[in-house]
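Retro notes, item 3 of 5
We never archived the inputs for the fe (ii) ion complex last cycle. Fixing that now. Sequence and ligand:
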Amino acid sequence: MDELLDKYLSKEEKEDFLSIIKPIFESEEFKLRSTDKYTHHDSITLGEHILEVAIITYLKCKKRKDVDLKTAVYIAMMHDLYTLPWQNNPDNVVKYFFNKHGFRHPIEAVINAVNWYPEIFNSYDKEVLIDGIVHHMYPMPVRVYNDKDLELRCKDGIDGENEQILRDSTNRFRIGDISLCRSRFKEGRIVSMADKKVTRIHLRNANSLTQAFTGRNRNLA
Ligand SMILES: [Fe+2]
Ligand SMILES: [Fe+2]
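Structure as it came back at the time:
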């Protein structure tokens, strides 16, 4: 993790960045995702992936006066906080095609983040946070949050205002059970671009690309 921080950030930037991400970075759920139980692409852990996306988001937003830097960094830190490791995992197998990890995981990330970091959702604009997480995969579609069984793996649910925002966000540009659009907010669109950039860095070989679609990684035990 330190290597990653030093690769992109000056000493001052590193201190500032770490103070922003602290409530998530030091949480048990994030630490768990930084172990080799959670490999994301190739052999990179989910925690490393998320951190790299958050660093790139931070650097992009620092140069701009028209975006809220902390909101964008929090979207980045929460965008892939899905429940189960997605590669080679029989517990992640679902019945319905559009409930597969690729379509479903942004919804799990929203529900988990709302439950794990309520203080962030109470202090920053909930709509910008949730919409940014929901549509981070664009131009890949996301599962619509509706009353059908989404086969979610979250331990907790979502209700009230947060649930309504999630419902409205996934119902934009809806085609059946999927929604295909960018985030309505600049902060979310910046995270989505940073996510694509980081994914491109690590999906260099054909095997990594195959993994991303099938959820099977031959390089893992
Ligand atoms: Fe994702
Ligand atoms: Fe990601």
